Amino acid sequence: MHTDITKQIQDISLFAGVSSEKLNMLAAQATYKKFKPGELIIGEADPIRSFYVVVSGQLKLYRSSAEGKEQTLQLLGPGDPFGLCTAFATDSFPASAMAIVESSVLLIPGTVMEEVAKQEPALLLNIIQILSQRLKDSMTLIESLALKEIPGRLASFLRHESLRNTAAAKTTVELTLSQRELAKILGATPEALSRSLRKMANDGILSTAGRTITILNHKALEQLAEGE
Question: Does the pTM exceed 0.85?
């Protein structure tokens, strides 16, 4: 199992540049866990001081209000780490993490991560880059929720997804989550999201078929995302 974990983490960008010796050290202390769809991995304020890395599947990080309203903060896929602040700074987790589909996660004790990070500048640099991107993503989410109506939020999300891992915007976006989960990301009700999708379809901006969204007018989508 130790050898299997080493193979899994050596291909994750977070650990790029980290020596084989330290990778083995991390793998020796790591715990591998599987989770079913809808299963909670860690809850808000849980006193767990570990570092997490998604191996397979898809997770969501979210916050819940006392009234039960839920806001999805981020989606995580294979190779994505979470719990950075839990591992290095705080004693409680600032959000809840739940599996959307069947997923597997590595848990590495925070003390072990700290020890390795002190000796491996590459790991610290990788963590800083991840935190910087997460901060940027959080600021974009805050701006969208505070300043844009639901169609604009949806347009921003689709534009972001169409540009993911590609130089030019893709024509189709394959959603990996249900419309109900997408609504939680956009801070909308499922009904409001459905209305926005219908209106954008009627306006000739996109078409939908199940979880596949085809962008018919990239310029109009961009203008809507920018609030024009």
Answer: no
Structure tokens at 23: 């990778």
The reported pLDDT for the residue numbered 147 is 84
Taking the C-alpha atoms of residue 51 and residue 68, their distance in angstroms, rounded to an integer, is 27
Q: What is the pLDDT of residues 11-56, one digit of tens each?
A: 888 999 999 999 999 999 999 999 999 999 988 777 667 889 999 9
β-strands 31-35, 103-109 pairing: antiparallel
* Contacting residues for 45 by C-beta, under 8 A, at least 6 apart: 92, 93
Q: DSSP letters of 141-192?
A: HHHHHHH--HHHHHHHHHHHHHTTTSSS--SEEE-SS-HHHHHHHHT--HHH
Give the Cβ contact number of residue 162 at 10 Å.
19
Main-chain dihedrals φ then ψ at residue 3, nearest 5 degrees: -65, -40
How many CB atoms sit inside 10 A of residue 113's CB?
Answer: 22
Q: Residue 59's closest CA among 88, 80, 90, 87?
A: 80
Residue 32: Cβ within 10 Å count: 14
CA 156 – CA 144 distance, rounded (Å): 8
Report phi then psi at 145, rounded to 5.
-70, -35
- Distance from C-alpha of 30 to C-alpha of 52, rounded to nearest angstrom: 9
The amino acid that residue 213 corresponds to is: I
Place of tokens 């976006």: 173
189/180 Cα distance (integer angstroms): 8
pLDDT average, residue stretch 127-131: 90
**How many other β-carbons are positioned within 10 Å of the β-carbon of residue 13?**
12
205-215 confidence digits (pLDDT tens): 999 999 999 99
